[in-house]
């Protein structure tokens, strides 16, 4: 039987484009190398759910900490769209709840800032195709990539420790 750790929340935040028909997604780059990794990577904004905290409250807290966004910055309330189990090393598992949202207006990424300078070094945005390129060079967290692909494929529940088949390639 696996040991459980606290739940996680992640956000797929769409940034409307004024120039193109394709939206970008908000990413944050780690400030330091996380344990178990060999390089600094980017990923979806998010983090852990504190004891007694509602998942939606944790998501808004993480968005405020990592990219200084408030509920009023979105077209509508964030929506809980999926949850995924992740089996980690040492037979430890947790649930990751994924929220989606669209910013209320086109933002220049340079307008966004972090409130967590110890954890986040850069806020940036990429299209799904650009993120697939980042994955090829191990520049994006595997879990974030899989969550985005599962979202794109409309798969609302799954296991993040298993590869995702997208357009004939496993990620």
Helix and strand composition category: alpha/beta
Strand content: 25-35%
Q: Compute the gyration radius: what is it? A: 15 Å
Which residues sit in consecutive blocks of at least 5 with pLDDT less than 50?
none
- Gross morphology is globular
Arithmetic mean pLDDT: 89
> Helix count?
3
- The sequence of SSEs as H and E is EEEEEHEEEHHEEE
The largest sheet is: 9 strands, mixed
Ends: how far apart?
27 Å
Q: Could you estimate the helical fraction of the residues in percent?
A: 10-25%
Strand segment count:
11
Describe the structure.
This protein is an alpha/beta fold and 171 residues long. It is 19% helix and 33% strand. It contains three helices and eleven strands, in the order E-E-E-E-E-H-E-E-E-H-H-E-E-E. The strands form two sheets. Strands 1, 2, 3, 4, 5, 6, 7, 8 and 9 form a nine-stranded mixed beta sheet that branches. Helix 2 packs antiparallel against helix 3. It is globular, with a radius of gyration of 15 Å. It starts with a strand and ends with a strand. The mean pLDDT is 89.
């Amino acid at each position: 039987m696996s040991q459980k750790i606290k739940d996680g929340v992640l956000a797929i935040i769409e940034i409307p484009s004024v120039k193109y028909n394709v939206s970008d997604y908000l990413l944050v780059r780690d400030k330091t190398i996380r344990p178990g990794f060999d390089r600094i990577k980017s990923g979806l904004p998010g983090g852990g759910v504190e004891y007694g905290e509602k998942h939606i409250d944790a998501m808004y807290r993480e968005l405020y900490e990592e990219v200084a966004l408030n509920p009023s910055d979105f077209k509508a309330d964030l929506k809980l769209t999926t949850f995924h189990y992740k089996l980690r090393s040492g037979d430890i598992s947790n649930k990751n709840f994924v929220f989606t949202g669209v910013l209320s207006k086109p933002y220049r990424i340079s307008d966004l800032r972090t409130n967590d300078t110890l954890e986040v070094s850069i806020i940036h945005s990429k299209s799904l195709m650009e993120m697939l390129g980042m994955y090829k060079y191990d520049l994006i967290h595997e879990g974030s990539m899989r969550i985005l692909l599962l979202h794109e494929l409309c798969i609302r529940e799954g296991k993040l420790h298993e590869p995702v088949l997208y357009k004939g390639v496993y990620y």
